[in-house]
Amino acid sequence: MSTEIVFAPLLPIWALAALGGAAVVLCLYAAWMRLSGWALRGAGALILVAALTGPSLKEEDRAPLTDIAFLIVDRTGSQSIAPRPDQIAEAEETLAARLDEIGADPDAPLEWRRIELRNSAGDAAERGTQAMAALTEAMAGVSRDRIAGAILISDGQVHDLADAPELPAPLHLILTGTEREWDRRLVVERAPAFGIVGESVQMSVRVEELGRVPDPGGAVPVNVSIDGEVVASIPLPVGETIDFDVPIERGGLNVLELTIAPADGELTDRNNSALVEINGIRDRLRVLLVSGEPHAGGRTWRNLLKSDPAVDLVHFTILRPPDKQDGVPVFEMSLIAFPVRELFMEKIDEFDLIIFDRYRKRGVLPTPYLANIVRYVEEGGAVLVASGPAFAGVESLWRTPLSEVLPADPTARVIEQPYVPTISELGARHPVTSGLTDFAPRPMEDGVPGWGRWFRLIDLAQTSGDRVMEGPDGRPLLILDRVEEGRIAMLASDNAWLWSRGYEGGGPQTEMLRRLAHWLMQEPELEEEVLIGDDAGGELVLTRRTLTEEPPQLEVQTPDGRTLTPEMNEVSPGEWEAVLPADPQGLWRLRDGDVTGVAAVGPAAPREFENALSTSDVLDPLLTETRGGAWRITDGVPDLRRVREGRGAAGRGWLGLTDREAYTVREVRLSPLAPAWLVLLLASACIIGAWRLESR
């Protein structure tokens, strides 16, 4: 039972103050005038003013409430470093027993709740140890006047200190790890997100040493790997930032890994590496289009290439061959002499793709120039041959040195009949033509694609490469081939322009040529034999694209050194897939026979391992503010005791939890201290007494 006097004024405070002040002034005036009843007059006024304040006696019947304490156990990534897991288990068991012991005190009952911290999967893992968020969430369901305190078992590396709640009780830290820890880490200070293919990008890195390093300083070799292949080793002085150039040799995603060898005695090697993903892009795609003669499809090629702002097109059209004798004087012609030698000899290596559109041998390009194109292909260039009727005759491009790299020989037949181009069985698995029927204007019927017909086919005898599209009777229509470092494609028809004109609904010419051009330029997204890993929100999706029908035999090496052999399922022709949990973070290495790949899951060194040293420095401001303390577990598990609110909550060998003396009110009784009849009686007696004294 609790008793106290409470007030419920009948007038505003300012009005009561004015009345009281007036009564004091009148009493003083009466005393100055030597009136004998001034004291009784003052007493009467005081009784009236006091009655206006509404005094009452408040009696509460209270029931005590149990205080709440939180035991926060940090089991995030950095707590997996030995001997921390054993220390956590020992501290948790001991503290749980001591919390149960002090919670059984009937005079100060205590309930405690366990909170476990673990790293989330996917992008959420980058937030590190979210101890304050977990504590805030736990406090949200508890009245603040019942919170006795919180005990955090951790290495002290908390990454959301700025979001710490306003604690009404002490926070204590039980430090895992040891006092003499030291570590070395690799830091990437600057790295670009993209780079131009064929150029280099600059990066800045630094090696740092943390803690009590036994032999500080010196130089550390940094190994640089691109897509799993070591390309350089750079000596790096500890504590200094150096800049170095990284060549971007191919388009698409380039996964760059920087590593330093682990040192004896360092805390962990999880921060000895760094992953950087650089997207290789082409500045401008330079295309040389060689049209052998004007025809209906010539402008289609030109318009298609000019519509892409990323393409620099050089169009070389033979309008008047040298052997033409029509009697027209040369000075009357407005044709411009084309820089043939400059293009086909001096600057041919500057082009990413060369297209021969219905080209015929007419003496415009001498034999050495065509031989130079063969060298261009063998050293990594790309050529597309779109054949016309001349390819089957004596003026065929096949009758030049270029035949050395062509994947088919002409049979001297030109088939002119309507037919629907189809995707071959191999083409259904090839990335250039796989799923191409989905872009047709009409759905397939009885296995026939829903695009328009073509009317001409140059009959070819395939000698190498992959036949991905077919004409009538299964004859080769589109052949793709690799020639040493370069690539070549042959389209055995000059009717592709019918699709762009919308004949019989048209067809996906733009999509087909886009894929074809990207495959010729060796873009990774269109490689037919490739192994890809993609981090998809906590899951690692592994994709194997292959032209073979055999199931892939995939081997996966995880960042922590384990080897997995997941079973892959065919999700579409030529595409196999497997899904694994994306844990742990780092660089995953993939292999299927001779085909290799890498997958970057988060950073190589997650935020948990950026600085894994155990220290109370991060939490010291909050510990001081809440009157809490830090205790290293190597000194033993401290005792627990209850302390009064506002007192220090940590001492030698002990940590305190506040006794909040919280309660709930079961019943309230209010008894007026100044009933109206009593106030009237006392005030009247004082006034009458003063009048009688003054009337004598």
UniProtKB/TrEMBL annotation:
Cytoplasm listed as a keyword: no
Name of the protein described by the UniProt record: Glutamine amidotransferase domain-containing protein
KW RNA-binding (keyword) present: no
Membrane-spanning residues: 6-31, 38-57, 674-693
Source organism, top-level taxon: Bacteria
SUPFAM superfamilies assigned to the protein according to its UniProt record, in alphabetical order: Class I glutamine amidotransferase-like
Cross-referenced InterPro entries: Class_I_gatase-like (IPR029062)
Keywords: Membrane, Transmembrane, Transmembrane helix
